[in-house]
Amino acid sequence: MSFSSEPNSPETSPPPLVTVCIPTYNGAKFLGEALEDVAGQTYPNLEILLADDGSEDATLEILEDFRANSPHPCRIYRHSHRGMVQNWNFCIQEARGVYLKFLFQDDRLDPDCIRKLVNVAETDADMGLVFCPRRLEVAEDAAGIGILEIVAQRCRHVHQGWRHLNSRQLGTTLLGDDQLWTFPLNKIGEPTAVLLRKSAVEAVGGFDTDLSQLVDVELWWRLLATGSVGFVEEPLAVFRLHPGQQTVKNAAEGRFDEGRFLLKIAQNPIFAQDIRQQATWHWLQQENWRYQDWRSHLQEIPPSLWPDWLQQMLSQTPQWCDRGEAKTYTQGLMAISDYLLARIQDQPQPWLEAAKVYSLQVSLSPTYYCELPLDNLLQQRRQILQFFLQSQGYRLDWQFSRQNSGKTGVYLETYPGHLPETCKTIYSPQPPPKSWPGGDWIQLPADLRGQIQRLREENLDELQFWGDSVGNIGAIAFLELHQLARSQRTFGDLPLWETSDETAFLHMSLTPSIYPSTTAHLGQAPDPEILDFKQRLDIASATVIFVSAISPDDLTVELRETWAGIIQSCPQSLLLLLLSQNDEQSKLGISSRDRLTETWAKFDLSRQQLIVVNPVDWQQQPLWWDVGDIYLDSFPVNSPQLVEMALNKNQVPILYFGKTRRSQTSVKHFSGPIPPEAIAQQDAEYSQLAQNLATDLEFRQEILKKLKLAQNPSQPRPDSLC
To answer: Is the peptide bond before 184 cis (omega within 30 degrees of 0)?
Structure first.
């Protein structure tokens, strides 16, 4: 890099030519002022390039009048509407000057602006840009426009965002400033406040047409990465804020493309590695599941960033703070799985790491809570997991001898909520629990390869996997992809496969191991005991008590608000919620009481209309179940076991029959004809049924009688794995 001690002397050489670029589009309102400022510049060697992008107002007439009287050479170009950034690049292409000075149709320049900027630029042949502070001028009709108020309040002195700013310094020193990533990102300013060296701009490729809002700062950073930068500590330009400017349009259309900007920086080798890593980190932090168009977004992510991106995205499972989270998550996961599988099948090697991240981290649990069919997603997930295992050297198929061994077994990855009643051998990486009643229990090695080898050595005729092999990744998700027995089946707590194949799901009936402290009290407790219990809880005898038992992970916004709406419509009622798990056991790690209290406050309900009971409290006190009048079955995931418990307690359950098998479980559990008036098929019907049951005792008793008749105790259900 070379520095000269002083600017070129006008006595020895003419001042370099500066092209003043004025891109226009429907700019008649302020254009005259901008042109007056160009004509009044004290710098002598100017040419003026006017590029109109298909204006439909009086812009062209104003330009023609100016050219006729311009004190400097002036060219006018007219073309059909190309767009803002394309028009800027057209100006660069057609400019003849050593330097480029952009002036937008709604901005202004001080008379000495160009002269003072050129004087600094001439001190260093490697100086790609020179900038100065600019004054903000807020138009009268800009009041009340949010984005303009933010700019006016927080972006008035953007140059003060740099820690150390000199009149001449290496651009990389600014890129290394620890304030680089703080708001606002553009600490140089708009093009009106900047003088550019044309050769430097051409060397880095001009303005990026993929961007709309951060297009100028992205070019500034590229110029900082490749040369020096100059600064004139004197406001020499005016940036006008008004409703018609591009920033307002971008804000209205959601085109503040910070994510695309960060991605550009992260992928551009012109920047130092630490800048690219910081850009990647900032990009990952602002990625979330709420994209409107997933498939087009995925195509923008380079393969090299997919592993980090997937790591970030798959760690952001829904927290049930907003409606529709499950559907958004599921649609996003469907797009990711479809896109990743297609890339793997096309070019497997570059996508190995992404497949590894997906296989070790993907969770389908949030997909339980929407009514979208999952068959295709589950099949794609299975194929990606198979690809990952095979890339790690696992052999999925296995040839067993034709002679049967007569041996069957059940695989348990961890201790379930209740142990299956089985006469078969248990295979598990866990030792048998102290409560194990006896029988064959073989402890497997802790590692996956060891478990595969040991199970194949057993030469089993049949192996049954007990647990959820789909929701969250664990050993069972990988083991079921291997041939470990002549025949193997998977049993889970939720029917995820949308298929008529009943072997995909094993119903579990109510057993003493599920509710050991309440099964001895099945059947409504005597009225005196219930009344006494209500009095101790300070519940009026006329109060209708809705009861439900649910995991904290199932408390979606939709379910909470539906329940709150029911209580709101029935003033003489309350919700008794029996938690099936403590909050500490929840995947969400969020207080159930806090979320419910927030919902109750939103519906202006009394805190006395909500009772939340921890598992240990209600399991040790059976009367919690007895005081309920109406059981609210959860949706879209529901529990036939809890509905059966409610019926045994003479509670009327409100059943929900959704669009998928997992949302139809409770209804299908009863084989007899259930009266249509006892089944809801959408949220509104669910709430209306609850209100009718709460206000009409005769109707409630009639429905309870019909539901009990609908049960068919003579038909056996598979209660065990024997």
So the answer is: yes
Instruction: Give the integer Cα–Cα distance in Å for 16 and 145.
Output: 42
- Looking up tokens 């049960």 gives 711
∠ at Cα 25 (20, 28), nearest 5°? Answer: 90
The pLDDT of residue 291 is: 72
Query: Helix, strand, or coil here: 167?
Result: coil
The contacts of residue 523 (CB under 8 Å, 6+ apart) are: 648, 649, 650
Whether the Cβ atoms of residue 664 and residue 658 lie closer than 8 Å to each other? yes
Which residues, 6 or more positions from 395, have their beta carbon under 8 angstroms from its beta carbon?
482
Query: Parallel, antiparallel, or unpaired: how do β-strands 108-109 and 237-241 relate?
Result: antiparallel
- H helices of 367-427, in order, are 375-391
Average pLDDT, integer, range 341-351: 96
Instruction: Report how far residue 426's alpha carbon sits from residue 466's, in angstroms, rounded to the nearest whole number.
Output: 10
- Residues 385-419 as b/e (b if ≥16 CB within 10 A, e otherwise) read bbbbbebeeeeeeeebeeeeeeebbbbbbeeeeeb
Q: 673: burial class by Cβ within 10 Å (0-12, 13-18, 19+)? A: exposed
What integer best gives the mean pLDDT of the chain? 87
For residue 687, the surrounding DSSP H or E stretch is helix 683-695
Q: Cβ(289)–Cβ(334) under 8 Å?
A: no
Contact 290, 318 (CB under 8 A): no
Range name among 27-36, 200-209, 703-712 with the lowest pLDDT average = 703-712
Residue 433, Cβ density class (10 Å: 0-12 exposed, 13-18 middle, ≥19 buried) = exposed
Given the DSSP bridges, would you call strands 228-231 and 168-170 parallel, antiparallel or unpaired? antiparallel
Give me the pLDDT at residue 547, please.
Answer: 96
φ/ψ of residue 457, rounded to 5:
-65, -25
Q: How many CA atoms lie within 13 A of 94 on its CB side?
A: 20
Task: Tell me the DSSP string of 544-604.
Answer: EEEEEEE-GGG--HHHHHHHHHHHHH-SSEEEEEEESS-GGGSSS---HHHHHHHHHHHTT
What confidence score (pLDDT) does residue 496 get?
37
Q: How far apart, in whole angstroms, are the C-alpha atoms of residue 401 and residue 263?
A: 55
> Is residue 361 helix, strand or coil?
helix
SS3 51: strand
Average the pLDDT over 193-214 and give the result: 96
Extract the tokens encoding 280: 């990647």
Tokens of 357: 């991240």
Q: Which amino acid is at 145?
A: I
- pLDDT tens by residue, 96-129: 999 999 999 999 999 999 999 999 999 999 999 9
Nearest Cα residue to 377 out of 481, 480, 470, 483? 470
Q: What are phi and psi of 373, to 5 degrees?
A: -70, 140
Q: Tell whether the torsion through CA atoms of 186, 189, 192 and 194 is positive or negative.
A: negative
Which stretches within 207-245 are classed as H helix?
A: 215-226
Which residues, at least 6 apart from 468, have a Cβ–Cβ distance to it below 8 Å?
476, 492, 493, 494
Q: What is the pTM of this model?
A: 0.81
**Residue range 60-76: mean pLDDT, rounded:** 96
